[in-house]
Amino acid sequence: MAWKQTGQLSLADSLINAHKAIEELDELHNLINWQTIEHTLRHVHSSDRGESAFHPVIMFKILLLQKLYNLSDPAMEKQLARDLLFRRFVGLSLTDNVPDHSTIWRYHKHLGELGLIEPLFNQINEQLAEQNIIIKAGSVSIIDASIVEAKNKRAKKGKHTNNTQDRQAAYVSKKDSTGTLKTTYGYKIHLNCDEDSFVKKIQTTPANVHDSQCFTTLLTGDESAVYADSAYKSQAHDDYLAEHEPPINNHIHDRAWRNTPLTKEQKHTNTQKSQTRNTVERVFGHFKLHYGMNKARHLGLMQFHTSTLLASIVHNLKTALGLKR
């Protein structure tokens, strides 16, 4: 497969004075063994017309930067064209052309279609574990879910307008922090993170899938304890954790049942559990505030899943940098 020849330093590149401003992403870049990533991506082609395409590692780096800075495809194209920092990170010289926004969109789509985003997420987590940044065996799993709004603009009857409703999303009604029932059309992110906020496992579903349905599949199998809110409380889950070999310490919040309110002791225990469980709330907060995961930008569950895992990779890399410094 033919790749575009890029990254060859030109006279213009040699005239640029070294400055910390264009080296800000070097530490992030150096966390990853890109040769391993290249092997995984070797069959991904960013062109649909058969001509030479941008190297897949360059395109993957572009998707990571796009998520890191919460940029749309057109905004990412413009930023690559004018920003030395971005060009340095992805490996483009000053004289290299940049991929246009449709190429960026298409590469995002191909990663999902080829089922590569999950292996990439796992590989990068493995690399962080090899550097003793992520602690795997015996770590704590903190599980929760969060709803993300999807596009829901349907064409009006008799009007010549586009139907941009995401047909793979679903409606769900849930009370907000004020107790008001709110209906949302969208998807749901089911997430497992550790106490350092590293994302360990992700599942994505339409929003009407109950949180508890993804509980056991989110577990890694090597955790020593599990924290989750009362939505996950059930006898089946209690039995699963107790019967696991070795048993997993159960810190799922107690819940009130009909005619059986929580005791004072149970309320106190739940409050103590929340001190650890709040870590996952902060992860979702970062996803939505910094990585554009407050709304689904792409149509379809597969594209949403790809976007969520890209956010998870970027979040883990930023968390790793914070722990190393």
TrEMBL record:
Record domain Transposase InsH N-terminal: where: 24-108
Keyword field: DNA recombination, DNA-binding, Transposition
One Pfam assignment: DUF772
InterPro entries cross-referenced by the UniProt entry: Transpos_IS5, Transposase_11, Transposase_InsH_N
Gene Ontology MF terms: DNA binding; transposase activity
Domain named Transposase IS4-like: residues: 138-317
GO biological process: DNA transposition
Keyword Lipid metabolism: no
Family of the protein in this entry: Belongs to the transposase 11 family.
Role: Involved in the transposition of the insertion sequence IS5.
NCBIfam families registered for this protein in UniProt: transpos_IS5_4 (NF033581)
Protein name: Transposase
The organism of origin for this protein: Faucicola atlantae
The organism's taxonomic lineage, starting at the top: Bacteria, Pseudomonadati, Pseudomonadota, Gammaproteobacteria, Moraxellales
